[in-house]
């Protein structure tokens, strides 16, 4: 299974999200054999739904289609370290592994922390550590490529 290939696909999904007028965040769900099962885009701007994060959108679809046991064999690739809401959704879905691109700290270093309404800088590992089920986390990964998604907005 190629982490680079799947992360670059998540980056492409984020670009597609942005081209539709949304924020540049994307993710993909991959099974244990490395097959891409589905993609998730951010839809906050076009849907008017504050919960329209890429990971939540993907997990809503995935949990209707796949069992918890099956999701426990899957990996989610996200362009950015998930926020606490998305981290919790990953935990509750049963997804086994998370690979993320840019860390929360690096994201806020790049984008700024001036608006407290949009800053929630809890590392996903810290939140996962509070849960009873272990979720494997890899990241940051290809963070410089992910940073290019956001640097155009600074």
From TrEMBL:
Report the domain of life of the source organism.
Bacteria
What the entry lists under CDD domains is as follows:
nucleoside_deaminase
Keywords in alphabetical order: Metal-binding, Zinc
Please list the residue ranges annotated as the CMP/dCMP-type deaminase domain.
1-135
PANTHER family tied to this protein: CYTOSINE DEAMINASE FAMILY MEMBER, TRNA-SPECIFIC ADENOSINE DEAMINASE
Protein's UniProt name: Nucleoside deaminase
């Amino acid at each position: 299974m190629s982490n680079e290939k799947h992360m670059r696909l998540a980056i492409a999904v984020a670009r597609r999200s942005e081209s539709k007028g949304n924020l540049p965040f994307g993710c993909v769900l991959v099974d244990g054999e490395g097959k891409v099962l589905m993609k998730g885009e951010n839809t906050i701007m076009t849907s008017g739904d504050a919960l329209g994060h890429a990971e939540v959108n993907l997990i809503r679809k995935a949990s209707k289609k796949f069992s918890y046991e099956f999701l426990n064999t899957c990996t989610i690739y996200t362009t950015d370290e998930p926020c606490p809401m998305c981290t919790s959704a990953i935990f509750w879905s049963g997804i086994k592994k998370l690979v993320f691109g840019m860390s929360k700290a690096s994201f806020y270093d790049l984008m700024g922390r001036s608006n407290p309404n949009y800053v929630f800088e809890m590392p996903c590992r810290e939140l996962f550590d509070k849960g009873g089920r272990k979720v494997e986390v890899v990241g940051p990964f290809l963070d410089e490529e992910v940073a290019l998604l956001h640097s155009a907005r600074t």
